[in-house]
Design a protein that fits this description.
The structure is a single chain. With about 450 residues, the protein is an alpha/beta fold. It is about 40% helix and about 15% strand. The protein has 16 helices and twelve strands. It has helices at about 15, 30-35, 50-65, 75-80, 90-105, 120-125, 135-150, 160-165, 185-210, 230-240, 255-260, 265-270, 280-290, 335-350, 375-390, 435-445; strands spanning about 5-10, 70-75, 110-115, 155-160, 215-220, 220-225, 295-305, 315, 350-355, 395-400, 420-425, 430. The strands form two sheets. Strands 1, 2, 3, 4, 5, 6, 7, 8, 9 and 10 form a ten-stranded mixed sheet that branches. A hairpin with a 5-residue loop joins strand 7 (about 295-305) and strand 8. Helix 3 (about 50-65) packs parallel to helix 5 and helix 14 (about 335-350) runs parallel beside helix 15 (about 375-390). It is globular, with a radius of gyration of 21 Å. The protein starts with 6 loop residues before the first strand and ends in a 6-residue tail after the last helix. Residues about 175-180 have low confidence and may be disordered. The chain binds 4-nitrophenyl beta-D-glucopyranoside. The site of 4-nitrophenyl beta-D-glucopyranoside has 14 residues, from strand 6 and strand 7.
Length: about 450
């Protein structure tokens, strides 16, 4: 069973759906610039995207008809702050007031992501997350936004997917498929980026609390699943999930532990030398570990782990037989949700939301319909695993499907479609897919029919 007040929703992000890239005083973003430079697959751009800036009401009605009681979306920093002095663009704030009010009117609780990879270009030009100044700019932006909206919005998510930012999506201007660490001169330079992200997060949490709202963070991770139910394989999977491998930006304990437990894990000190580790003062750590009110996890996939028989683990990756979506990492591994939330809740003891989970396909309209059976199966299978965890009294508060709409998939452009609603990019018309109705039916029964 899911709790009675379980949050059922979908997630989106500003750059991926809004368009209107020069409207109402918005300044250029890092992503507008990447598009202008032709760095996106197929030379696609985010200038119009799903045009949700103008069509947000239609999108909220789609959520309403779905039966959703929550919507996770992000605020575009470049719509709010106009310059390095931190001047505020009132029109940007006015836009999000309309979106929030419309959600509330329809019984949909907004979960606002403060940073989903877009920042003003003037910040990018100064080095984005490698320049300590970004923390100061972020504090100004977050203070403006949370002060403005906290009277109506309860839940704020500070930063989306630290690993992907380190991997170049929110930060460095190269395709995301290169070996992550090649983007950095050395370990030290990527740990400095991490340091700025941690401080930005901590200060944002303090601001959220100053205005009496609740805050969390939304990292992604590849969940570790034991190959058998034996205690030694389960212990091995747990160990792998929280392990740190040198220069692997996807390790989660490297940021979750300081944020939630107030200290770096032992492995961090074993893997990185004194020279590589940036200095964190006691005061820094106390900012970074401002208590979270909830924890969000984006989970799409798992990898399989077995014990090496000596207290360590062997990462056996994936079976070739496992199907992927349009994007190759987007494998169908429903057990990711069960084991992911189980290990996370054991270690961090916080209420958990699945803030993203979804499946990409190359959908085609057929007489105004999309028969995306694979996506329907994906949703049902993953939710069955989440329900199993919930029945074991793990504190799971909600699930956000990625995404409501097909949208701009960063460097991959408009190829992969993750939506439960199809978007015809020529007419911008929306068409609910079969999976929309599958999810609707699950929501209607609060998952009892899974
Ligand atoms: C997320 N993985 O990124 C992002 O938050 C979204 O903006 C994006 O559109 C969505 O997933 C689909 O790609 C991820 O390797 C990138 O497991 C990589 C992974 C997961 C999520």
């Amino acid at each position: 069973m899911f709790r009675k007040d379980f949050k059922w929703g979908c997630a989106t992000a500003a750059t991926q759906i809004e368009g209107a890239y020069l409207e109402d005083g918005k300044v250029l973003s890092n992503w507008d610039e990447r598009c202008r430079k032709g760095l996106i697959n197929n030379k696609d751009n985010c200038f119009i995207a799903c045009d949700s800036y103008h069509r947000y009401h239609e999108d909220i009605l789609l959520l309403k008809k779905l039966g959703a009681n929550a919507y996770r979306f992000s605020i575009a920093w470049p719509r709010i702050i106009k310059d390095k002095k931190g001047s505020v663009n009132k029109k940007g704030l006015a836009h999000y007031h309309k979106v929030i009010d419309d959600c509330l009117k329809h019984g949909i609780e907004p979960f606002i992501t403060l940073y989903h990879w877009d920042h003003p270009l003037f910040i990018d030009k100064d080095g984005a997350w490698s320049n300590a100044d970004i923390v100061k700019h972020f504090i100004r932006y977050v203070d403006v936004v949370v002060k403005e909206f906290a009277p109506k919005v309860k839940h704020f998510i500070t930063i989306n997917e630290i690993p992907c930012i380190l991997d170049g999506l929110g930060h460095i201007e190269t395709q995301s498929d290169a070996v992550p660490i090649k983007r950095y001169k050395n370990s030290k330079s990527h740990l400095i980026v991490l340091r700025h992200l941690l401080l930005a997060h901590g200060h944002a949490m303090k601001i959220i609390h100053k205005y009496h709202a609740f805050g969390g963070i939304a990292p992604n991770s590849v969940a570790c699943v034991p190959v058998s139910k034996s205690k030694k394989d389960i212990d091995a999977a747990r160990k792998a999930y929280f392990d740190i491998v040198k220069d692997d930006v996807y390790a989660i304990s490297i940021f979750n532990d300081p944020i939630i437990l107030g200290r770096f894990p032992k492995r961090y000190f074993e893997v990185y030398s004194d020279k590589e580790r940036p200095v964190f003062t006691k005061k820094d750590l106390s900012v970074i570990s401002e208590p979270l009110d909830f924890y969000c996890q984006n989970i799409y996939v798992s990898r399989y782990i077995k014990s090496d028989g000596k207290g360590g683990y062997i990462d056996i990756g994936y079976s070739k037989k496992i199907k992927s979506g349009y994007i190759d990492w987007n494998r169908v591994t429903p057990d990711a949700l069960y084991w992911g939330v189980k290990f996370l809740s054991e270690r961090y003891k916080l209420p958990i939301y699945i803030s993203e989970n979804g499946f990409s396909l190359d959908d085609h309209l057929l007489k105004n319909k999309i028969h995306d059976k694979e996506r329907s199966n994906f949703i049902s299978k993953y939710l069955r695993e989440l329900k199993k965890a919930s029945e074991e009294h793990i504190d799971i508060r909600g699930y956000f499907y990625w995404s409501l709409l097909d949208n701009f998939e960063w460097f991959k452009g408009y190829g992969p479609r993750f939506g439960i609603v199809y978007v015809d990019y020529k007419t911008l018309k929306r068409y609910p897919k079969d999976s929309y109705f599958t999810y609707q039916n699950i929501i209607k029964h609060n998952g009892r029919n899974l």
